[in-house]
Specification:
7-stranded antiparallel sheet, globular, about 160 residues, alpha+beta, homodimer
């Protein structure tokens, strides 16, 4: 996966946090994902398909999920309930949806957002896919964005 | 979600188990998913997009995942490793891929298969989506198929 494919997702995440949540998401480390352990408790997952296939994973601590959902729902929420999970799914959908329009060459469509919960859950990519993982800091706590695309064959020059 | 949309996935699961694994998957209960708790330890997850969006989840116990992977890899495998996770992802991909061609009206594409592991992990659908869950029995143990599609507006008659 070419590193520049991650940039639209970084931009859309920062924009979504700024405009929807009035929260600055400060980009931290970028890494090739070395192990599969989701670093946080709640993960939004959405598939991408078109001229390539991929997945976007947005992982939050419970604290960040609760703060984000409380802001989106305009009501203080103190437990991970269905509304919070819907908010995390919707954020994931927005991040993937905004980014895909910047990757026109792939003619991507997004699938349904699902949200995985569970301490120590891991979200594995196929072993031929090396997802890129980027950590972000917010005033609410940390979060992680992971994006992985299936390998696209290099164009053959005539 | 109309119940008949599940049938192609049931057929493709039974076919995949029969042809790839020489294992009969006997269909058990069908249910609207009432809680989000994945019943098993390993879940293959793949997105669908086209004229609607959806997700297919295939959940196994560790025992079924190991037996299925051992058969696909033609080597006895006794621990959940990367090869087993790839095999679960590939099975999920095959089940979704074969079923989508039976649902031509939606012009579906499948995304990348991901595999979630973790005791007590839960895979949540958006609250406006009611996935259908079907349990299967095999000689290796039980597994569960879940399919959820976003609501499709009913056609308006003129």
């Amino acid at each position: 996966m070419r590193v520049e494919y991650i940039n639209p997702f970084v931009t859309s995440l920062k924009n979504a946090f700024k405009t929807m949540l009035a929260c600055e998401a400060r980009r931290g480390e970028i890494a090739l994902k070395e192990n599969n352990c989701a670093k946080h408790y709640v993960s939004g997952v959405i598939g991408l398909s078109g001229r390539t296939v991929g997945t976007v994973v947005l992982s939050f601590s419970e604290a960040v999920a609760l703060k984000a959902a409380s802001t989106m729902l305009m009501t203080e929420t103190t437990a991970i309930n269905e509304d919070v999970l819907d908010a995390v799914g919707e954020l994931t959908n927005m991040v993937a949806g905004a980014a895909k329009s910047e990757l026109e060459e792939f003619e991507l469509q997004v699938s349904l957002p699902n949200v995985v919960t569970g301490h120590n859950h891991e979200i594995h990519f196929p072993s031929n896919v090396v997802p890129i993982s980027i950590s972000f800091e917010t005033d609410w706590g940390p979060l992680t964005l992971e994006v992985g695309f299936a390998p696209v064959p290099e164009p053959v020059c005539a």
